[in-house]
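Q: I have 488 residues here and want to know how they pack in 3D. Can you give me a structure?
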Amino acid sequence: MNDDDHHHHHHRKWFHLQTIKPRLGKFQQSKISIFPNMASEDSNIHAKFEVKVVRKTTVRAAGPLPHSNIISLSNLDLLSGRFPVTYIYLYKTTQSIHCIHNTLIDSLSQCLQLFYPFAGRISENSKSSEPEIICDNSGALVVEARANIPLKDLDFYNLNQSLPGMVVSIDPHFPVQAQITTYICGGLSITFTFDHALGDATAFSKFLITWSEIAMKKPISCSPDHTRNLPPRFPPTYNSSLDEEFTTCTMEEICNMPTISILLKRLYYIDNSSIDRLQRQASANGNKKTKIEAFSAYLWKVMADVVNKKHSNCKMGWLIDGRTRLSKNENTMSNYIGNVLSLAFAESDVTDIQQGSIADIADIVHKAITMKSDEAHFMDLIDWVECHRPGLMLSKSVLGCKGPPALVISSGRRFPVAELDFGFGSPVLGTVCSTIERLGVGYINQRQSASSDESWTISAILWPEMVEALESDPNHIFQPMNLTYIPL
């Protein structure tokens, strides 16, 4: 790549991490201060967590691209909420930052040639007022930063404290941005932040795996499909229950949605023995339940105990990937890049959830997920959006404008964690979070831990009472993330 393809902006300002709060779509630079490792006994001796941005590089796709084209978002992209999604990976490398930076930038440039919409920009169509992807190779942003603490002193548990250092700012001009942060005594964090309009977890996992394969000079496993072709039926028809669940909205309404409360962003470890025990309990009625169904039943019971004083009902929701549901055979949509997500909710009486067994609740969970896991549901959803265009749309619960307290569960069990090696070793931790400050529901994301031993890493955005309940449960299923579970 030549210098025309990179714009270097040099910064020598330290970021003291407390007065910055990353907001949706705002680009900020100001001073902030964080005490890392609140969960550890010796936190009082740690220095403040400070991050200095060293340079910013715009990375464009290498080689020839399709002639400048505009990609219209699909109906399901319009349901994404355009939240910023940040994947967080920690590495224990001793390689020089110079080598790492060059490897990542060269391989990203090649990766963007295959994923050329990710090097574009998202702008509003003046006629339809809907966002669209302008594939003009504006590029992706790579930020290089230096932290003033060793990686082992980072607060792995309290993401409200550590995330603003790992993602110093979000530049709304770049739908894809990465921040490489080096720490004293070696080690680094890499955060990858995407605009949700570009895709969902499956799409982003394909992008990251391809980037890693190129960096490692491995054969590329994905041939991305950028058609965004999820056409409605003619005439569009849908089940009227969707009118109860989804609504049209503006970007402004998404940014200013009523939030459940203060949002605590936390990282947990769950041992595989706890997961197996929950699965056995959930399968006690004779039907084997999945681990996610069992985990959901446990969370629903905890939530019911938390909200019972103020609410008679509560809801659980599950993000469901429609690729296998809309495919004519197993693989026709596996490389589809975009959003193919629905949200299945189930609502129940708090007392019923409190009194039911884990197996009883898991039966309700299984039924709710199954009802929204077929082709008919996804076709209805595509048609519902068609009937409400132009504009953005979102689940009423997520937008904070409907009904009882709700918790949404997202399973990232197929998302690469240990596999995300760019040539300087496998990560010791991989998870997801968001810089959003307002959300109408609680959110829990589950994925395999980097140790590949069937244990889980859980990223949670929850209200304080729910955090307190999970952490004080005598079963100790949710373990606050710390160095015990991260091989540094």
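Q: Anything worth noting?
A: The first strand starts at residue 8 and ends at 10. Residues 1-46 have pLDDT under 50 and may be disordered.
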